[in-house]
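Folded chain entry
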Amino acid sequence: NHKKKQLREKKSHRQKQLRAKENHKKKQLRKRKSHRQKQLMKKEHHKKKQLREKTTHKKKQLREKTTHKKKQLQEKEKHKKKQLREKTTHKKKQLREKTTHKKKQLQEKEKHKKKQLRENVNHKNKPLRE
């Protein structure tokens, strides 16, 4: 009887050990699995973050590029307008000077004519001396 009891205890002890071993293995497997999953999630998250950053960077660059182009165009337009304004003012000035010059010339001509006329009249009215 005693031997049977010992055998039974031995057997149950061995089964307990085996169960414990199995449970330990399962636990380790679960741990490894969850760890792997966590790593994968981290990797995926990192990839998404990088992609997001890359796209935002590209968008920013494009935005800066377009604003730069717009500024350049505006500057170009401004320059053109300024040149045109200067050109027109220069032309106006030239025209003004030309017309004033012509007026002066005409006035001078008129003056000269009047003077000549006066001299002619004076000359005619002078009594002849002999």
